[in-house]
C-alpha cells in the first residue's frame, strides 16, 4: 500500500482536521494568548495528528502488503487466510473474518465435491467389476469363435480403460511400486493381444527389454497395452 494512496483515502480526515485547526486558532485568539503559545499549540497538535496517521499507515501497510504478497504467491487462493495473522485494526479484522468465512465455506464445498467424486468412483468400479462377469462368461461360451472373441477382447479393454481412468485421479492410493521384469510385463501384453496379432499377421518384436524396473506392474501393463492396442487399430 502506497503512502499517497493512504493519504488520498484520508482526505476527509484532513478536511475535518483543517476545520478543527481553524476553530482552535480562533478560540486561542479569543483567549488572548500570545502568538508563540498559539503557534506551539498548533504545531504540537499537527505533530500528534501526523504521528497518529503514520502509525495507522504503517500497521495497515504491513498487513495489506503481506496479504497481497501471499495472495500472488499462492496457487490455491482459498488457503490465503491460513497464511495470515489476524490484524489489530478494525477494517483488517473485518476483512480477516470475511476471508476466514470464505475459507470455511470453500473447505465445506471441496469436502462435499470430494465425497461425491469418491461415491461416483466407487459406483463405477463396482459397475465395471459387475460388467466383467458377463464378458468372461461370453468369452467362455464363444471360445471357438475368433471374431466374437476379438470383439469381446476389445470390449474388455474399453471397460478396463474406464477403470484405470477413474483410478488415475487417486493413483497414489493404488500404486504398488516394486521391482519387476520389464520383459515379463511386455510378454503379458503380447499374450493379451495375441489373437489380434495373429489375425492381422503382425510380428511383435521386442529387443533389449531384459531389464528390472521399479514400477506398478498393473499400471505399466495397462499403459503398454494401450499403446499396443492403439497401434493394432
Short recap of the structure:
Keywords: Kinase, Membrane, Transferase, Transmembrane, Transmembrane helix. With 233 residues, the chain is mainly α. The chain has nine helices and two strands; from the N terminus they run H-H-H-H-H-H-E-H-H-E-H.
Sketch the topology as an H/E string, one letter per element.
HHHHHHEHHEH
Please state roughly what percent of the residues sit in beta strands, choosing from under 5%, 5-15%, 15-25%, 25-35%, 35-45% or over 45%: under 5%
Structural class: mainly alpha
Strands across the major sheet, in which order? Answer: 1-2
Radius of gyration: 37 Å
Largest β sheet strand count, sense and barrel closure: 2 strands, antiparallel
The count of β-strands is 2
Tell me, rounded to a whole number, the average pLDDT: 85
- Rounded to the nearest angstrom, the distance between the terminal CA atoms is 61 Å
- Number of H/I helices: 9
Low-confidence stretches: none
> In which range does the helix fraction lie?
over 70%
Shape: rod-shaped
Descriptive report:
The structure is a single chain. The chain has about 230 residues and is mainly alpha-helical. Among the domains are: about 1-75; about 175-233, Histidine kinase-like ATPase, C-terminal domain (Heat Shock Protein 90), CATH 3.30.565. The protein has helices at about 5-10, 10-30, 35-75, 90-140, 145-165, 170-175, 180-190, 195-200, 215-230, and strands at about 180, 210-215. The protein is rod-shaped and about 120 Å long.
